């Protein structure tokens, strides 16, 4: 990371500031949606989760490939950190989605293509992390997980196509959620953008922290090995 | 045996290190085995002998450093390097459900030997496997399996033979036979790197010994058949050194 | 590469372990799933392709471990790795072997499936053949690769389905959808996009496996 001190000084207050702004907008300022009622407010958070999840997945893919090619621990740490955070945001995304769906459509789960895709993504993240912890040796675990990471990203397009075609065969029982961002009110749109930005910054911040923790852990282990 | 001054070393390690996460198995090991030389690899358990042999066999990729087999860089010319070497360890690398002949024919094909069938037949005769050649390998005793493994090793006439505790589990006759065959192979010009705890047997074959201590090169020098006791002392001392 | 393939086939002919496992497991799953459906209900026929693919997928997953586990006896995998053979070639040979085993198992399973679900034999087989073959090829590719990966973990048997199934999701979806359409009488052209997807999946994972196998197998 380039200038640790500068970014460290700017990032946390920036994140807090934007998050406060987002919370204010979501809960106070934005008008209640005419059709969906107050529950609709969770939609902003839900979409924000989505951005972070897919960014994390992209990072896992790239970091995995670079680890296989270059073999520096940095890429391995990045891949793992991104996977952990990705799993977190993915879980939150799926949870907020369900919470939103129940009052609106009276169902906890739909096989909406995007949802299914996200679910499969979640399983790949979980498998990635599980693979690491169950590997016979940590270094081998890093390599194996990297292979899974690359496979996952490469497969993503195929999964996407398959899931969309699958759901397009049966008439859509539920209105496609993408229609939701046809948000008429400009204030709603602004709220969405601010919330997405807020959570994305949280994601980046957590990513930095996690990377730093991993590097410190490595340093500790090195010292321990030297003393032994 | 006269060797041209320019003949590339059968095996060369340049600053080879191997780390498994936190554990350092090999630390900056550099050595060279000349063509046709027989070297004894010594060290306490865990000193890194097996790791070194596996790096030499291109089964492990070193974390740092280069491994050269007959002048070829193992990292870039892996397949060509592997053609020149063979490994004999505790496991026989033979498929238990196939017979010895089938196993050997398979390996002959794998190494793309033109006269595979003839070589298989010759080796079976030479190693006295005639009666057992067509039984599945799982039905053979350990000694016989080791003999089949030996046949597998000699099939492609390697220039470098890597042996990891080859005498384990063999009775006296089998050991003698293995020793004889290794002697023949050595006389024909193959280099041998052997790791074994049986110092007496090792010394009948090897004139040089390399000792690993805690993953590092501890000692590298010439030995004679009578040096067994002296080497054992060194090993014990070496272990004390590593602990302190 | 051919040598490895032939060797695997020969061992299999001798022991028939993998084939037996695939067949019996497949049969078991077909039967158990049949319990889920009332024999009279039309739901049964609609679910038929799904049942077949579930049987294929799960039996295949469990059977796939065997082929790689076999290399562990006497550490034969090391023997293979020591040979002057490209690692990727080892992968392709094993994947092809697995494909052939599964295809062989299907030769028995599909007729059984036809038998249990009361479908016309010849038309079903000819209609399903392209889908099943394409699907099995992709499955063999992913399976072989991740069987090798899971061999290096502590929870071998559990890891393989865990790793494979999410990635194989497009394969399963495509397989079932295409089978359903074909069994209902649609012409091949109608399911072309599914077949293309399957073919793409096969190509992708054969290449990924070919490139990545050496990383899995080295230390």
What is CATH's topology name of the domain at 11-84 and 158-243 in chain B? Rossmann fold
Order of helices and strands of chain B: EEEHEEHEHHHEHEHEEH
Task: Give the terminus-to-terminus CA distance of chain C.
Answer: 22 Å
- Rg of chain B, Å, rounded: 18 Å
Per DSSP, what share of the residues of chain C sits in E-state strands of 2 or more residues? under 5%
Give a quick account of the main beta sheet of chain B: strands, pairing sense, barrel closure: 6 strands, mixed
Which structural class should the secondary elements of chain B be placed in?
Answer: alpha/beta
The CATH class of the domain at 11-84 and 158-243 in chain B, by name, is: Alpha Beta
Q: Which blocks of ≥5 consecutive residues of chain B have pLDDT under 50?
A: none
The topology string of helices and strands of chain C comes to: HHHHHHHH
When the domains of chain C are counted, the total is 1
- From the N-terminal CA to the C-terminal CA of chain B, the straight-line distance is 43 Å
Overview features:
heterotrimer, A: about 230 residues, mainly alpha, B: about 240 residues, alpha/beta, Rossmann fold, 4-stranded antiparallel β-sheet, about 35% helix
What secondary-structure arrangement, pairings included, does this model have?
The complex is a heterotrimer of chains A (228), B (244) and C (219).
Chain A: H1 4-29, H2 42-70, H3 73-105, H4 113-134, H5 138-169, H6 186-227
Helix pairs in contact in A: 1-6, 2-3, 2-5, 2-6, 3-4, 3-6, 4-5
Chain B: E1 11-20, E2 23-33, E3 38-43, H1 49-56, E4 64-69, E5 72-73, H2 78-83, E6 85-88, H3 100-110, H4 116-126, H5 142-154, E7 160-164, H6 172-187, E8 191-195, H7 199-205, E9 208-213, E10 216-222, H8 228-243
Parallel strand pairs in B: 3-8, 3-9, 6-7, 7-8
Antiparallel strand pairs in B: 1-2, 1-4, 4-5, 9-10
Helix pairs in contact in B: 3-4
Chain C: H1 2-15, H2 17-35, H3 43-69, H4 76-82, H5 87-117, H6 121-151, H7 156-183, H8 192-217
Helix pairs in contact in C: 1-5, 2-3, 2-5, 3-5, 3-6, 3-7, 5-6, 5-8, 6-7, 6-8, 7-8
């Amino acid at each position: 990371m380039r200038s640790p001190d500068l970014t460290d000084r700017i990032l946390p207050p920036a994140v807090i500031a934007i998050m406060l702004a987002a919370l204010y907008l979501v809960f106070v300022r934005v008008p209640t949606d005419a059709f969906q009622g107050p529950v609709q407010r969770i939609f902003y958070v839900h979409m924000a989760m989505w951005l972070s999840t897919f960014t994390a997945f992209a990072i896992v893919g790239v970091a995995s490939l670079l680890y296989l090619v270059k073999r520096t621990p940095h890429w391995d740490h990045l891949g793992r950190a991104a996977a952990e955070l990705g799993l977190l945001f993915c879980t939150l995304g799926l949870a907020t989605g369900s919470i939103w769906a129940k009052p609106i459509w009276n169902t906890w789960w739909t096989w909406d293509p995007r949802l299914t895709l996200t679910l499969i993504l979640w399983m790949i993240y979980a498998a990635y992390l599980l693979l690491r912890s169950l590997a016979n040796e940590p270094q081998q675990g890093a390599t194996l997980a990297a292979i899974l990471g690359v496979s996952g990203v490469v497969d993503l397009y195929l999964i996407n196509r398959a899931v969309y075609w699958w759901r397009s065969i049966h008439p859509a029982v539920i209105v496609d959620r993408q229609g939701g961002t046809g948000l008429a009110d400009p204030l709603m749109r602004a709220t969405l953008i601010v919330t997405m930005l807020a959570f994305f910054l949280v994601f980046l911040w957590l990513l930095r922290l996690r990377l730093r923790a991993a590097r410190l852990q490595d340093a500790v282990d090195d010292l321990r090995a030297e003393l032994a | 045996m006269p060797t041209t001054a320019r003949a590339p070393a059968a095996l060369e390690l340049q600053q080879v290190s191997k780390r498994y996460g936190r554990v350092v198995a090999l630390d900056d090991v550099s050595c060279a085995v000349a063509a046709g030389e027989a070297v004894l690899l010594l060290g306490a358990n865990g000193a890194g002998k097996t790791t070194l042999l596996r790096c030499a066999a291109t089964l492990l990729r070193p974390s740092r450093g280069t491994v050269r087999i007959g002048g070829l860089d193992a990292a870039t010319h892996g397949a060509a390097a592997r053609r020149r070497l063979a490994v004999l360890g505790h496991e026989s690398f033979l498929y238990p459900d196939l017979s010895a002949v089938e196993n050997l024919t398979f390996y002959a094909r794998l190494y793309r030997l033109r006269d595979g069938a003839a070589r298989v037949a010759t080796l079976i005769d030479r190693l006295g496997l005639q009666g057992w050649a067509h039984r599945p390998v799982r039905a053979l005793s350990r000694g016989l399996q080791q003999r089949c493994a030996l046949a597998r090793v000699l099939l492609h006439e390697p220039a470098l033979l890597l042996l990891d505790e080859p005498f384990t589990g063999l009775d006296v006759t089998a050991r003698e036979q293995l020793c004889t065959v290794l002697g023949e192979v050595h006389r024909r010009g193959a280099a041998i790197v052997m790791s074994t705890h049986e110092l007496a047997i090792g010394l009948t074959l090897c004139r040089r010994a390399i000792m690993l201590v805690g993953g590092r090169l501890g000692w590298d020098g010439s030995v004679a058949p009578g040096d067994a006791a002296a080497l054992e002392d060194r090993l014990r001392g070496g272990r004390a050194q590593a602990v302190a | 590469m051919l040598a490895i393939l032939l060797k695997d086939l020969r061992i299999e002919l001798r022991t028939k372990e993998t084939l037996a496992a695939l067949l019996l497991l497949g049969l078991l799953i077909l039967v158990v799933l049949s319990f889920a459906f009332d024999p009279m209900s039309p739901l049964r026929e609609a679910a038929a392709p799904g049942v077949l693919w579930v049987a294929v997928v799960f039996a295949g997953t469990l059977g796939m471990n065997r082929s790689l586990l076999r290399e562990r006896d006497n550490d034969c995998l090391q023997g293979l790795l020591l040979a002057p053979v490209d690692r990727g070639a080892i992968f392709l040979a094993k994947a092809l072997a697995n494909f052939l085993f599964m295809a062989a198992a299907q030769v028995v399973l599909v007729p059984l499936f036809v038998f249990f679900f009361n479908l016309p034999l010849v038309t079903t087989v000819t209609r399903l053949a392209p889908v099943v073959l394409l699907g099995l090829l992709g499955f063999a590719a992913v399976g072989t690769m991740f069987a090798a990966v899971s061999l290096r973990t502590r929870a071998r048997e559990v890891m393989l389905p865990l790793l494979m199934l999410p990635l194989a999701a497009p394969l399963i979806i495509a397989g079932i959808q295409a089978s359903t359409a074909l069994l209902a009488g649609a012409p091949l052209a109608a399911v072309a996009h599914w077949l293309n997807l399957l073919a793409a999946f096969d190509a992708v994972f054969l290449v990924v496996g070919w490139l990545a196998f050496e990383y899995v197998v080295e230390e």
